[in-house]
């Protein structure tokens, strides 16, 4: 059983790569490095996809074809869409939608032309295991691994885990106007990012179970680019490593 772990930016997987490094081998395909090795006794392939839906789709296809992965987890950051969510919360997708897909009037808005669907569901077992791992890590370990400067800033107590829809598109959403427009267009969406639904489409097409886990770095508003850059530098890797560590340890039990 081989797990593919994908992220868009190096900072999102730096700690996982460091942990796997001794004994791992690196294969370069299509301008990407695939790190093949073991994490907590599990066969894993970790890869940095880079940003956007095309990058994510190309990487996912290579993971399936060249590395024969059995399941895929995408980890990284997202902007919060739904009211009541806070920076530091984790969103785990139950469904994903490509918010910039619009072949109307030929096909309904958001529907992937000729595939006949607009949303993709994640694998319940993977999703549930990630939810448990995220809850456990936030409760037991996060405070020791994320600096108190951040935790003081959040002021909302322990960050929470949410399960719901994630919207993906080739835009970094960074204005109050755009975030409002997205909220109105996709009222079920909890978070916005730039890769998850592309991974979802490829996994759907190949019948590969997948899950998407995102930490909220910003509110997709006018300050999003500043909040995102700070969070990415200082916190992102702690979350990915901490939660996936719990996830893999529980899998081994
Ligand atoms: N990833 C993290 N924050 C984001 C945002 N505001 N828009 C798109 N992708 C993101």
Structural commentary:
- Helices cover 39% and strands 28% of the residues.
- The two termini are 15 Å apart.
- The chain has one domain (75-252): Nucleoside phosphorylase domain (Rossmann fold, 3-Layer(aba) Sandwich).
- The chain has helices at residues 14-20, 53-67, 124-140, 142-145, 148-154, 176-185, 196-206, 224-234, 236-252, and strands spanning 2-7, 25-29, 32-39, 42-48, 71-80, 90-98, 119-121, 161-168, 189-193, 210-218.
- Bound molecules: adenine (ADE).
- The site of adenine has 14 residues, from strand 5, strand 9, strand 10 and helix 8.
Spell out the key features of this protein.
alpha/beta; 253 residues; globular; 39% helix; binds adenine; Rossmann fold
Layout of helices and strands:
Elements: E1 2-7, H1 14-20, E2 25-29, E3 32-39, E4 42-48, H2 53-67, E5 71-80, E6 90-98, E7 119-121, H3 124-140, H4 142-145, H5 148-154, E8 161-168, H6 176-185, E9 189-193, H7 196-206, E10 210-218, H8 224-234, H9 236-252
Parallel strand pairs: 1-4, 1-5, 5-10, 6-8, 8-9
Antiparallel strand pairs: 2-3, 3-4, 5-9, 6-7, 6-10
Helix pairs in contact: 2-7, 3-9
The structure holds adenine.
Adenine (ADE) binds at residues 77-79, 172-174, 192-194, 217-218, 220, 224, 228.
Main beta-sheet strand count, sense and barrel state: 5 strands, mixed, barrel
Q: For the record, what is the CATH homologous superfamily label? A: Nucleoside phosphorylase domain
Tell me the count of domains: 1
Structural class: alpha/beta
Q: Any guess at the CATH architecture?
A: 3-Layer(aba) Sandwich
Shape: globular
Distance N terminus to C terminus?
Answer: 15 Å
Using only C-alpha atoms, the radius of gyration works out to 17 Å
Highest-level CATH class: Alpha Beta
């Amino acid at each position: 059983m081989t797990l593919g772990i994908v992220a868009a930016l190096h900072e999102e997987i730096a700690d996982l790569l460091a942990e796997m490094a001794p004994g791992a081998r690196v294969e370069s395909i299509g301008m990407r490095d695939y790190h093949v090795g073991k994490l907590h006794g599990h066969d894993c392939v970790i890869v940095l996809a880079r940003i956007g839906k095309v990058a994510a789709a190309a990487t996912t296809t290579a993971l399936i074809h060249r590395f024969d992965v059995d399941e895929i987890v995408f980890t990284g950051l997202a902007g919060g869409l739904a009211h009541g969510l806070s920076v530091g919360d984790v969103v785990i997708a139950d469904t994903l939608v490509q918010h910039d897909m619009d072949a109307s009037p030929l096909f309904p808005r958001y529907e992937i032309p000729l595939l006949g669907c607009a949303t993709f569901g994640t694998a319940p077992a993977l999703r549930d295991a990630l939810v448990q791992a995220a809850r456990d890590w936030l409760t037991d370990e996060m405070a020791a691994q994320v600096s108190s400067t951040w935790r003081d800033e959040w002021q909302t107590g322990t960050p929470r885990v949410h399960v719901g829809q994630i919207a993906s598109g080739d835009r970094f959403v960074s204005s109050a106007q755009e975030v409002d427009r997205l909220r109105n267009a996709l009222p079920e969406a909890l978070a916005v990012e730039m890769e998850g639904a592309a991974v979802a489409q490829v996994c759907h097409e190949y019948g590969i179970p997948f899950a998407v886990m995102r930490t909220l770095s910003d509110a997709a508003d006018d300050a999003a680019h500043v909040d995102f850059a700070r969070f990415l530098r200082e916190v992102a890797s702690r979350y990915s490593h901490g939660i996936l560590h719990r996830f893999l340890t529980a899998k081994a039990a």
